[in-house]
Batch of 3 targets.
Target 1
Amino acid sequence: MPPRHCALFPAGTTGSASVARLFDQIGLASAALLAVSVAGLGRGPETARYDCPMSREPHGSPASAAPTESSRSARTAGRRFTRLFSVTIAVLVLLVAGLAAANFSQGPRLASAEINLDASVARGNPRLLLTANLPLAEVAAGQVSVSPATEVSTSVNDRALTVEFAGILRYNTVYTVTVTDVAGTSQSATSTLEYKFTTPDIDIYALQRERRLGDSGVKLPDTVRRTTLLGRGDGDVVFSAPRIQQYVALESHLAAVTLGDDDAATLEVVSFAGGDNVQVPLPGAGTIENLRASPSKYLIAYTFTSGPDAQGRRHDRTPFVYDLTEYSGLPVEVTGVDDLPMAVMDLVFVPDSTTLVVQKSELSMFLVDMLGDAVLTPLGQHAELRDFVPGTRALVVADPNEGATIDLADGSVTTLDLAPSLLDRSAYPGKVVLLNEQGRYARLFLQETTGINQLASLIAVTDPDDSSVAFAPASESSSVRDFCVSPNGQYLAVETIPAAGLADEYPTLAAFSGMTTTLVDLDRGTSSRSVSGFLPDWCG
Amino acid sequence: MHMSQTTAVRPVAARRRPGRGLYVGLIIIGILTLLRAFAPAPPADSLADTARDFVTLSISVVIESLPFVFLGIVLSIGVQIWLPEGFLLRRLPKNVVARRVVLSLLGMLLPVCECGNVPLARGLIAKGLTVGESMTFLFAAPILNPVTIITTQQAFGWDGGILAWRIAGGFLIANLIGYIYSRHPKPESLLTPRFREACALGDGHNAADGKARRSAALFTKETSAMLPALFIGAGLAGLIQTAVSRDVLVTLGSNPVWSVLALMGLAFVVSICSNVDAFFILSFGATFLPGAIVAFLVFGPMIDIKMLALLRTTFTAKTLVQLTLIVALCSAVLGLAINYAV
């Protein structure tokens, strides 16, 4: 059997000299073949080969044929390859040079942007993270502009430019952040980074108490309805019961206090995703007050007072906290020093936290973290526990002579020095809501009017430079029951009692028929929307 | 006369024991293993930090590459000896463009990294693949193979198009090289004389020999050609990595142009296999720009120190310089274009 070998190497060729000679011959012939194929095919498809690669020798044609023509063709083919290779390299070099120049002359570009939109309208000082494609040089505050005008601060870390907004952003608003003359750390070319985002709408809940009777002669159930700022009408019913005293809305649940015929309270939790209502175990028959929620932490708090016929331990405004995520499904009593039970006057969650501010009956106040070490942190003694300044952890408290804010971040107390309102001298002052830490506030006034036999309700908004009436009921005979500020400080929610409203005589949080809640845009000074009912979740 | 020369040479080759080198190697490994087993443990500080780094880095390249080199050799033996004559090549399309495309995707069936592709490509050349076609396979297969694609996807996901750019870049560059070298008038001149000679002599054994015997002989031959190259390449990679501060590379990473060149330089130096290079470079992802990452992932599998050492067993130095130039420029174009546009 003959030895196996590559098809292009003639059998018996051995030794490097022979191979070299053979290669020369093959090379000439193959070059000729290549030249012919290139010329003949006009850059058409090359000839596929199934034998060894070096083979360019046409099978059956002697390698020595027409040596002069072959060498000429080989030289031509060689030149063609050299030209092809050179052109390829030249084109690639030009591309590299062009792209390098283009890259050098290009400033940083925006690679991505990130902002928690839900948090931007719920918590203070939201941050927009702009990530560039290159590490950035320092950016001064003057390089950043925001529309609508918003105060911001900036910081740069490698490719990330963080824009921190002062306060909370407005609902349903298109924000445009423009950063000019942004340079990278590695090159001087500058560019402008621009990013637009739209803040989300917000759910609005309201409680509608019914006095009307149904076809069967039974009172129609009370309902909690949900709509949005941009929505129309009163929205959808998310909870209904024969008698609803109050409710709080969480991110995915709603907790409501319902009343039986004997006015005994029941605490129910309903999931927006559907499913059966969960009844929170209570110590017995009694009443529930001060229902509060920490929506993002799935916590609700309330005080419980035993009814007159209760057996065993009697509760007197005993605070409880119920964790919706707790497996046991049992509420936890909040106890005072040495785990002693206590009676509280009011309580409120620190925004977006598990910490509760409790005001005891003797007016002493303290903080307690319900998921932490349960250590009580005293906050002093104050006559009134109000709410937090929107977007901050500054707690507003009031005493007979003055008000103050307690910054829970550092414990500092700042006495409120509020500018006089335009209605101070002409009306009776009522409830005050602090709108920001710079001293802007809204106050309810009751003003004597001619023509009707009652006081007219007015809400004035005052800051150190200005004071104006932000809300007056459409009819002077209507009155304001209560008002509160939206979590971002953009709107006031004002509960209005119509002149013909009839008291519903609920034992706690009594209200009137036909109540409406009006949303007042504090920046624009306009009433943007009204919904039927009262007790908007912002006031919960 | 040719015949008589052949018969004069063949018996010499036949008299050589094909597996002798293998046996000797195994005996040496056995002796070294015994020495290591019974020798006292060296003191922990017997080597300076730099020397220790050099040894660690070099050995890591060898350890990482060795399985794929052997896998490539085994596949090469399979192609050359065990597959029927022309089994693979007959199935390739006749049209050269389609043929190169198919060869680009051959790595999907023969998933070895670039280290293993060299012996495999040598086997394919010996079976009749043209030099240009072998280059297309050689440069495409390390990227266009399932292991590399999966690891790249795992490292970078679908975001940023890193995987897509890598696949597209590898495919285009490999086909461009295949096209260019298909136009070479003397493709045999691209090969080293030694490999030409090896090809000319076939597997060096009479076809009457058993396939197992011929496989052993071919394994010995390929191993003796590949392993020294691998060791030299790994040693060089380790040496340069210990000599060049990585901080220098990272400093350059923030510039859209220098970052591309820096990571190509890093790819050349670290000589990491294409199957794992995505996870290696992932740690640089926050520092370097996407174009630089893609340039690393495209350039590295085609050209690096270890690969050049392995390729030198087959191609002339001039050819390797040309190939390096084309691959480097193409990778740079790709990286710079991505940095500019993305």
Target 2
Amino acid sequence: MRYKQIMMTAAGFLGIAIIVAACAQRGIPTGGDLKSGYFYSMPETQAMQWDTEANDWADFDNPGFIWVDQGAEQWDTINGEEGKSCAECHGEASSMAGVSTTYPKYNAEDGKLRALQDQITDCLVNRMKAEITKDWKWEGDLMLGMTAFVKLQSRGMPINVAIDGDAAPFYEEGKTFYNTRRGALDMSCANCHVDYPGSWARADLISNGLPNGYPTFRLKWQKFGSLHRRISGCNKNIRAEPYGRGSDEYTNLELYLASRANGVASEAPGVRR
Amino acid sequence: MAKKPRVKVSRKGGLVEIKTLISHKMETGLRKDSKTGELIPRMIINKFVCKFNGEEILSADMHSAVAANPYLAFYAKDASSGTFDFAWTDDKGNTVTASADVKA
Amino acid sequence: MSEKHITTAVLGRRQVLKGAGLGALAVVGAGLSAKDAFATPETAAAYLDKMVGSGGSEGKINLKLPEIAENGATVPITVSVDSPMSADSYVKTIHLVAEGNPNPELISFNMSPGLGKAEISTRVRLGKTQFIRAAAVMSDGSVHTGSKEIKVTIGGCGG
């Protein structure tokens, strides 16, 4: 039994090494010691996310693009009392290349840390004077679609969040959350994702817990969903009361997770098991 | 806002590769509402039809075990030019359509 | 496949055992019993027999499935049949069935010589580790069958 486990883990790492090498060859940043959840997925799940041979990112097999398409449509759609669309201020969506990789980001105007969703909400509410309908809430179809559409413009670019200066206190909060034991199982994020990546939790290969594929189409959810939804699932698993999606706690944690992923390619819209 | 079906038609190795993806929950009718305990009624896309220049080349009878957001990929013969029409019909009889042209 | 349903069905089975032990069989009255909670190799075969008639020869069908499905909710599957797909020799229908799902039927394809090759990919829900069976009816009326086992994991990190 023990032997089988060791062999499976060894095979897992060998698989990861091969795919990392293949990706690096194609110019996709794979980061340092910490690897994207992509490398902890089985080949069929990886194939569903993207076709590394294709010369554009419009991967057809990735169901997340159903939501991305909606985001793309919204980019050019006039919304709100100001009569503006996203394109009116930002121009072509390609102008967003390299933007999402710096989020979550400190915002000097309100002194808060903003996830990309917070920035989109700010645009909708303050610049466009648009109504935040159900579809524009954190886990709404349009918010997921727009977040992923903006992130798509940075797909393949390395995550690059700032953790110093004004962002430092938020980073520290996130780091503390990450290392704090919680819930009936009394476990911290680090207990799995730092202590046991590459090991099996029943049939799941524990990953480094990086956020670079979110929003992601999750096989289990059978739909597209946010990083905060995923974190909330982790918290429930260790029998801890989850925080809200978009809460300060989770946004700070997102910054800490993103800092662990600095240098790793942004993959959103991803596909995960 | 309705999500549009995604369709990709491309020439590949002397054939026409067709991929389709449509957003749908594919509610099985076997799940219970977590609050009320009542069974959630079945609501799936049960039929897919692909026609080329008006003639059916493939249809699929789908059951509740087809995954959410039904995906189908298949190959048509490479005809010089024409139109592929796609139709998805759900349990209530509602049909969503899409089409794609191939040129010589 | 909804996990809730699996849980319900499995509980149902346990209830049968427990219920029998306690003599409280009324609990089972809800209609969930081990027999009808999931398809079996027999019910899957019966469904195929109904669709294509009994018999048929093994072969000509290739089923491509992951060896292990990371999550049973979305499992890619490709079925192909050895056929020229010409006007006088083509595959008319392919039926895919599951031996361990709540219902055996997965999806059926009605095909024509307009298809360039007899190969179709889709994604299905699979409740547990089981055999997938396929039957193809050719234009000359002959029937071919094939099957493949797939392991479906229940992950440690539900989330």
Target 3
Amino acid sequence: MLQIKPILAALKRHKAGTILIAMQIALTLAIVCNALFIIQQRVDRLSRPTGMDENNVLAIQNRWVSVDGKDTAPLIKADVQALRQTPGVQDAFATNSFPLRGGGWSTGVNLVPKNEGKSTAQTTLYFVDDHALAVYGAQLIAGRNFTADEVITADPKDIKSTAQVIVTKALADKLYPKGDALGKQLYLGGKDIPPSTIIGIVARLQVPWNGTWSDNFNDNAMLLPVQLTSNYTIYLIRAKPGQLADVVNSAPAALLKTSRMRVISGDRAVRTYEQVRGDAYKNDRGMAILMGVICVILLAITAAGIVGLTSFWVGQRRKQIGVRRALGATKRDILSYFLTENLMIGVAGVVIGVGLAIGMNLWMVSQFEMARLSIVYVVVGVVALLLLGQAAVLAPAMRAAKVPPVEATRSV
Amino acid sequence: MLKMTHLSKVYRTEVVETYALRDFNIDVKEGEFVAVTGPSGSGKTTFLTIAGLLETFTGGEYHLDGVEVSNLNDNARSKIRNEKIGFIFQAFNLIPDLNVYDNVEVPLRYRGMKALERKQRIMDALERVGLASRAKHYPAELSGGQQQRVAIARALAGSPRLLLADEPTGNLDTQMARGVMELLEEIHREGATIVMVTHDPELATRAQRNVHVIDGQVVDLAEDPRFHQQQARAGAPA
């Protein structure tokens, strides 16, 4: 039975409670929509592939002690040899960084010398050798790998460009949208820096960062055949299947056996890729959990508010319910009255809440470089809040429906 | 119209059984105006709540408008209350959140009546009790007498076969009470069946027939010694 008009009339006489619950629903909707959106973004980020076969890869961060950076080339070469000969190790190489490490090199890339135009794309630079693709487990989809004699040894400050580079497909497509990047040239500097030729394209390799600032070049990576001489060296090691746990212990031991003039210590010194991923997304995971907890608490408080107010109203209107029953209302009419009343407050709340949700998102877009809120989250939030309201009101509404008609004759 | 035969109503707790009505017999014909009187606690209000299907009874039979009601389910009882019975309560029992118009509309909405017909019936009923001009007022803005008139309009709007009034003037001063009684008499003259519970002997005399209830039973006043004792205590002739 249609009861909207009398319910509206009754609600007008109970403005305070009605407005409070409607505003609570509105605020909950606004916060929950945005929180769900943030959670989804974090979950999307957590599940981004690095382009590597992560299950068997280990990273060791090594700092040389009492050795000049420029003198590290033979030491690094010996280390890599030792690692490759360690039982359980399939392959290894030295590098400056790796996907999800948290720090690395980035630069602009152009199709003309840099001082003749703006960068076409932003990319990270990984300095690697001819073993890198095998260690990454990266898929070479066009061209070829580096050869051993293409790998040069250089000090970081002397590196301007290399004759050959391998790029990810994302970077290749950005530079050459027609898909014809292989064999083409690119510039990492001005006129005085020689161009590099793209000799290979890999399917995917993520940048070392996972923050929002690198979101627009997340898969733009460039491999340069350079063995860096530096006080700080990272070894990426690929273990044979099933032997990673052993290599975690044997690889650092092999390095220390080669030379003790080094420091391999700290939480981040020896990490499997599972740990690398865990460390990289710690904040994202924490934020997603925090947002989830906030959502649950807010929804629980809103549901409790609805239960509380409706229970109060049922108690307050007990005699009135008895009168309605005496005048012919069925139990279902009474149940429907309270459900409809809650739905009307809920609809008012979600209408305001949709505006608040969009406004809150626009503010975050302007302040925190957040993405625009998808309408799907608003729709899901609206449906969830209305269903929550109906579920919360059900118990007190059923209590109301049980008020007997004889209540009408009882004095208050 | 209303016939109760050997009807009983027992309130049971773990240790005691209390008979509110015992072997209660009454037969109200269509078009009658019956006053049910009796002292406090005699069972007259219990009779009215059972007659109005607000409560169930424990034993006996109750025929309302030819229908035996003891086996009806809750929905069927609601339907009968809505369509066949008009209630007038001592405390008026208007819904404070609704204005006069909306209050009178309540039982009509539960009947699923169309808006146009509802409007016609509401305005007719309010005209009849002389309160058409107060349709937009809220109960709190009306005097007690006016509120009871609204309650009567609400009872009349559904054109019930039976009007049940529980101390309809109990909360009113003499002047307002007189007005309400005149209205009830007028409604009766137009053909309505009215059963009015009252403890006021003066009001009872204005009904066509008096039924006296003592200790949950209908008694013949002339023959019942309890009535004579009661009268003696009150210092009045039997």
